[in-house]
């Protein structure tokens, strides 16, 4: 057998199908686009769904890929079995209304027997029960042993995934043993025991299923084949497990070295090693596709895999964070097929390290707590851990629920999951939008998404702002329409347009659409799910019919501002890399006519100096008045030229590279100005964090930046006006004022304490001894009740054996406070009783304890009378 190395196998497959006129596309991102039904791409055909459903035209009718995939449905089995993994690569070839069974069956046979030289006597084929056509092609166009063909039912040989394109399939299997299988029953048994393994599934995608067993024939017949690369490598390398093939074995060996353990000696250790080997691949690839660990959606899948792997590393005795280094092996062995992992190496390592460190910090305490729970359950003969306890581990120690479950399962225990989820619900105040799966693409069907695939809409607005076009489709409300009239709001699709549809962060153009008898405003331009350009039009006058000729005109001033903002965004991207480092990658952007927003990967807030430096660099690029040139070139050529950027349109033959001299080179489909000088001025207005490891910069340019500078200037003017000084003098003046204020503060403090002590002496001086109690009754000026109480307390503490009564006029009323020392109380002093009588004189009421009382009155004019009376009142109270 040939091509035993996994990397060679991949190449052999793709080359073979290129030889059959297939367009080779790079793997799509693991993060699905426009497909809410999937968290992560789980099959080669997943990113190609719009081509099967006819929503989009494929770049060629024959495509071949090796697609990175993540599946977590069988995660419990990973490590335990020899073939389960969360990460795998799927080799696939696809036909969209082109070749069908007659071609794919002999090609598949040719590939496995001629190219791979798999022994024919080991190969078996299964077909769908009544698929006589497939049987005929297998038996007439290949030399497969007829006794090796079995007809199986819907369960085995009809491929469908919820609603959507589906069809019968034929599968190719490899017999790993020398046992001869002669009946379908024997075949199924051997497959159950892993003696015979399926490795290639050829799906004849010819129906559109509704998910309930009803099938309609698709307009075209298609082919979707899928072959797990790792599984094929296991056969080619004559191994028993995917973990023993070259690429995975390298990871596993490194993990064993780090843990100082040997593979194959102890079952538990082997499970951990296999699990780590698999998970680090998913982790590395997910991060390279910009998934960040979080408690939501795919971020949670990543977090769960990472923490699970970290925990198993710990169990193996690995002391420090290790996943952040283990990913080096994944990157080294897979970088040729997936250059993005090499390009983002430092970033991937950093994200892993941060998450791993964070988890390791709490891992020990979490395990200790969990062990405590386990002991308690066992002591009480209980089997189920309370949801609240499981949730505590999740919330406080970062234990994903599944991790807690796994550890409990090892101990023969379980978790009350319902209660756990209940706790989660209570705790979560963040709104979580549940994933909707309303149709095959997981999106709500929108009428504009149903525009036929053969409607051509071309954007020709890079160099034009006015174009003649023909009306292809009109949509009003929820229906296609033949005519739209004055007062309508409608979606208009033309064969060609100069208006840019919102994409890659750049907002859609606005403009006008007209002919001799019609005028409308284009309020926005977008793309539908199938990539058709749709104009949102408000009809101002006249009528428009399908087939009419119109002129489309872009709002030039607005477009010009958008262009400037877009070019400035490229300069900002470049400046950020220069100032912060090569780990900076674009994570999103918004480019409008008024401002720009740029999200990027970085781990901490920018310092003032960094912000200034970035701003300076962008402004230097602007003042260098550099021509901005767009070249159209091959994707590979673009990559070789060092162009950066998110590349959306990966299957076009040609890509656009926007260059601002040598400073910035970026893959971009947006519109740009022709010289950096036109941007005028660049000002950052904010820098903030939007998610772990992702920062956001908002900025303005040109007129808006000028406006911002002017606003600041006006503010400065207002300030200098208030300070009555020139701008130059302002700083000195401010410093001087601050100094003066400080001095004044000091003075105030000194004065206050002097005043307070002076006041106290005056108050104390009016003490009268009544029946051996020092009675003090005094009026304070303009104090509030807190101050009154405070002074009352001070006087009482200063004078032994005292009873103090203080009053003050406050906001037209009287506030009263009385306090007595313990020894005065022992002699009959009673603040409550005193205050009751005093407040009656003052037109109020109140009372309180013997040692302290407060009250209020309404007659400030009677304060002096109240003071005079108070001595008499004490006379009657005292013993
Ligand atoms: N869609 C099929 C699978 O996932 C063949 O590619 O197995």
TrEMBL record:
Coiled coil: 727-754
Principal localisation: cytoplasm
Enzyme Commission code(s) on record: 6.1.1.7
Localization, UniProt: Cytoplasm
Enzyme category, top tier: ligase
InterPro entries: aa-tRNA-synth_II/BPL/LPL, Ala-tRNA-lgiase_IIc, Ala-tRNA-ligase_IIc_anticod-bd, Ala-tRNA-synth_IIc_core, Ala-tRNA-synth_IIc_N, Ala-tRNA_ligase, Ala_tRNA_ligase_euk/bac, DHHA1_dom
Family: Belongs to the class-II aminoacyl-tRNA synthetase family.
UniProt-recorded name of the protein: Alanine--tRNA ligase
UniProt organism field: Clostridium gelidum
């Amino acid at each position: 057998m040939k091509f035993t190395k996994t990397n060679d196998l991949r190449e052999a497959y793709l080359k073979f199908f290129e030889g059959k006129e297939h367009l080779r596309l790079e793997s799509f991102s693991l993060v699905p686009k426009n497909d809410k039904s999937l968290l992560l791409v789980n099959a080669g055909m997943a990113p190609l769904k719009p081509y099967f459903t006819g929503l989009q035209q494929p770049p060629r009718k024959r495509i071949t890929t090796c697609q990175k995939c993540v599946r977590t449905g069988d995660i419990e089995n990973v490590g335990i079995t020899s073939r389960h993994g969360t990460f795998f690569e799927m080799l696939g070839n696809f036909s969209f209304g082109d070749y069908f069974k007659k071609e794919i069956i002999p090609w598949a046979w040719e590939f496995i027997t001629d190219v791979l030289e798999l022994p024919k006597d080991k190969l078996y084929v299964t077909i769908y029960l009544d698929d006589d056509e497939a049987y005929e092609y297998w038996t007439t166009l290949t030399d497969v042993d007829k006794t090796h063909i079995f007809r199986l039912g819907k369960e085995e040989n009809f491929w469908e995934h919820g609603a959507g394109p589906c069809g019968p399939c034929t599968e190719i299997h490899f017999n790993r043993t020398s046992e001869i299988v002669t009946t379908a029953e024997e075949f199924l048994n051997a497959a159950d025991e892993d003696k015979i393994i399926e490795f290639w599934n050829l799906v004849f995608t010819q129906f559109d299923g509704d998910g309930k067993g009803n099938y309609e024939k698709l307009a075209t017949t298609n082919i979707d084949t899928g072959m797990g690369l790792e599984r094929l490598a296991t056969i080619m390398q004559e191994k028993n497990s995917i973990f023993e093939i070259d690429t995975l074995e390298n990871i596993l060996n490194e993990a064993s070295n780090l843990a100082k353990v040997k593979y194959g000696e102890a079952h538990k250790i082997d499970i951990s090693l296999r699990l780590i080997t698999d998970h680090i691949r998913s982790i590395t690839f997910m991060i390279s596709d910009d998934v960040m660990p979080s408690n939501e959606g795919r971020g949670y899948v990543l977090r769960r895999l990472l923490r699970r792997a970290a925990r198993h590393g710990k169990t193996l005795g690995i002391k420090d964070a290790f996943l952040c280094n283990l990913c080096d092996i994944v990157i080294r062995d897979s970088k040729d097929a997936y250059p993005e992992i090499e390009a983002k190496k430092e970033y991937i390592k950093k994200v892993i390290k941060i998450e791993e460190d964070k988890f390791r910090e709490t891992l020990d305490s979490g395990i200790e707590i969990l062990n405590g729970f386990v002991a308690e359950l066992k002591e009480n003969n209980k089997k189920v851990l309370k949801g609240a306890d499981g949730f505590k581990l999740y919330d406080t120690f970062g234990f994903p629920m599944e991790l807690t479950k796994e550890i409990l399962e090892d101990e023969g225990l379980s978790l009350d999951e319902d209660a756990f989820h209940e706790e989660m619900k209570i705790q979560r105040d963040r709104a979580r939008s549940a994933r909707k799966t309303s149709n095959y693409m997981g999106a709500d069907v929108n009428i504009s998404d149903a525009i036929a695939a053969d409607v051509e809409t071309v954007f020709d607005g890079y160099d034009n702002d006015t174009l003649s076009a023909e009306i292809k489709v009109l949509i009003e409300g929820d229906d296609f329409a033949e005519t739209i009239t004055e007062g309508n709001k409608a979606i208009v699709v033309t064969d060609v347009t100069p208006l840019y549809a919102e994409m890659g962060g750049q907002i859609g153009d606005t403009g006008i659409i007209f002919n001799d008898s019609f005028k409308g405003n284009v309020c926005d331009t977008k793309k539908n799910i199938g990539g058709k350009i749709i104009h949102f039009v408000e009809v101002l006058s006249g009528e428009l019919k399908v087939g009419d000729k119109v002129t489309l005109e872009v709002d030039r001033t607005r477009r010009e501002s958008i262009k400037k903002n877009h070019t400035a965004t490229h300069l900002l991207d470049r400046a950020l890399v220069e100032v912060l480092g090569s780990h900076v990658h674009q994570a999103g952007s918004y480019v409008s006519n008024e401002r720009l927003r740029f999200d990027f990967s970085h781990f901490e807030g920018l310092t003032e100096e960094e912000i200034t430096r970035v701003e300076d660099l962008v402004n230097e690029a602007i003042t260098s008045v550099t021509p901005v040139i767009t070249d159209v070139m091959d994707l590979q050529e673009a990559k070789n030229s060092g162009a950066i950027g998110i590349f959306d349109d990966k299957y076009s033959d040609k890509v656009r590279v926007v260059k601002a001299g040598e400073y910035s080179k970026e893959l971009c489909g947006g519109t740009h100005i022709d010289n950096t000088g036109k941007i005028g001025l660049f000002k950052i207005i904010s820098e903030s964090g939007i998610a772990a490891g992702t920062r956001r910069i908002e900025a303005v340019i040109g007129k808006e930046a000028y406006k911002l500078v002017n606003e600041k200037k006006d503010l400065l003017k207002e300030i200098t006006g208030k300070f009555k000084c020139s701008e130059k003098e302002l700083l000195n003046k401010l410093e001087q004022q601050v100094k003066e204020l400080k001095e004044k503060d000091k003075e105030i403090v000194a004065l206050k304490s002097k005043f307070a002590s002076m006041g106290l002496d005056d108050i104390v001086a009016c003490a009268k001894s009544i029946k051996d109690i020092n009675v003090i009754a005094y009026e304070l000026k303009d104090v509030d009740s807190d101050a009154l109480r405070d002074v009352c307390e001070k006087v009482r503490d200063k004078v032994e054996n005292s009873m103090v009564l203080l009053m003050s006029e406050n906001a037209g009323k009287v506030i009263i406070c009385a306090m007595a020392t313990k020894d005065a109380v022992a002699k009959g002093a009673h603040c409550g009783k005193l205050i009751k009588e005093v407040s009656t004189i003052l037109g109020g009421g109140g009372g309180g304890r013997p040692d302290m009382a407060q009250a209020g009155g309404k007659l400030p004019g009677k304060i002096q009378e109240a003071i005079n009376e108070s001595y008499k009142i004490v006379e009657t109270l005292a013993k």
